[in-house]
Design a protein that fits this description.
single chain; mainly alpha
Amino acid sequence: MLLIIAGQWLISVLSRLTLGPTEIPADPLEKYPLAIQLFFGAVVAPFYETLVFQWACIRLLRRLRLEWRSTALVATILFGMAHGFHGRWLLGMFVAGGILAMVFITEARRPAGHPFWMTFAVHALFNALVFAMMSWG
């Protein structure tokens, strides 16, 4: 998770220095109470995205006999594209998707790993931290 935060920060700093300030896409949940925003942003969305972009995507690609690196790359691209095409926002989502794919694959390769739950936990915690920074910052 620290890699996701570091990657997002580095992209933000470098792009701000080269491209200037940018707007973050509108949040579709901003009109709802904070508890609803937190629940959907830090529980529902990470659960669904882990199910679709890591569990289903990686499992399917591995069944098609794609090697681990290619599988991670495809899952990363799909995760990034699903989050919209908003300039450097897309690049940040690629970083997050890549880290989440690697968490899933690392756990899937461990004999006693729990790839879905570990990836979901990292994703949920990351989203909760972003939510906290945006809400109180």
